[in-house]
Design a protein that fits this description.
By secondary structure, the chain is mainly alpha-helical. Helix content is 59%, strand content 5%. A three-stranded antiparallel sheet has the order 1-3-2. The longest helix has 37 residues. The termini are far apart.
Length: 283
């Protein structure tokens, strides 16, 4: 019986076939040599990263984040005009009680006796003819008043006095003093305030223009009986104020809206020139 425990030498390793040996050698060579794909990123990825590195960071502003800076002059105009508009709206919507002979006429609406004689759209001729334009524009006054009140609430609730900042659309504080100073509102509240004020000012101007055009196309049927002096001082100047000041508010607020959009798009802008904002070129 032959013993296998004390074999004189180990068994020799099996011999590989030429095809298997070639396959293993090729695989080892491939794993040892890095390919171009593993050593460098794909061309598209490297191009995208290069563009990101070359693209300049968006700049919010030449002087800091955008903010709304109404001047004290603008706020004073609203403080004067709002009570007058409320007074006018009350007279219109409470007719005939607010008219001469009515129970509410004295003492609050006594001046409307004269104005109703100057402008018949406010007097008995239009009321007796059931002209609806007067009450229609009075109802629009309610919407405008609520808009301006909401704007003022945002400005005084979230804004802060900034004496070192020149108010938007006002002369320099060195010329007009406190009137040229500003209150500054930032963040989302600034955008909401500008949007409300611009929309309301646009409504005021549009309604006033309609008021004037109504007179023109009716052959000045409500004011044509006045002499030139009465017409200028009792109709043109008082009503013209609601074209000039709200129209200028639209210009100033529109400038701020354009600047805010320029900030959002990462383009530089000038706080003092609307023309420069419109002349921005793509880099």
């Amino acid at each position: 019986m032959v013993s296998t425990r004390n074999h004189p030498s180990n068994f020799p390793p099996p011999t590989e076939s030429p095809s298997k040996s070639l396959t293993r050698t090729t695989r080892d060579t491939d794993s040892a040599t890095p390919t171009n794909e593993s050593s460098s990123p794909p061309p598209t990825a490297s191009k995208a990263k290069a563009k990101q590195r070359a693209r300049p960071a968006a700049r919010k502003s030449d002087s800091g984040p955008w903010s709304h800076t109404p001047s004290n002059l603008t706020l004073i105009w609203l403080a004067i005009s709002l009570p007058l508009v409320i007074w006018d709206t009350g007279y219109v919507l409470l007719r005939p009680y607010s008219m001469p002979g009515g129970s509410l006429h004295w003492p609050l609406w006594v001046p409307y006796k004269l104005y109703g004689e100057v402008d018949h759209i406010y007097g008995f001729p239009a009321f007796n003819a059931k002209n609806g334009f007067t009450s229609g524009q009075g109802s629009m006054n309610v919407v405008e008043t609520l808009g301006y009140m909401a704007y003022l609430w945002i400005v005084f609730r979230f804004g802060r006095p900034t004496p070192d900042v020149e108010g938007r659309g006002a002369p320099s504080p060195s010329v007009v003093g406190w009137l040229g100073e500003a209150r500054t509102v930032g963040g989302r509240e600034a955008g909401v305030a500008v949007l409300i004020a611009f929309s309301t000012a646009l409504m005021t101007v549009s309604k006033t223009v309609l008021y004037w055009l109504s007179e023109y196309f009716s052959g000045f049927g409500s004011i044509g009986h006045n002499d030139a002096l009465s017409l200028v001082f009792l109709w043109i100047i008082p009503n013209g104020a609601w074209l000039v000041f709200p129209g200028y508010m639209m210009y100033v607020l529109g400038q701020e809206m354009l600047e805010a959009m320029a900030v959002a798009s990462g383009n530089p802008y000038s706080q003092t020139s609307l023309a420069k904002v419109l002349a921005i070129k793509d880099e």
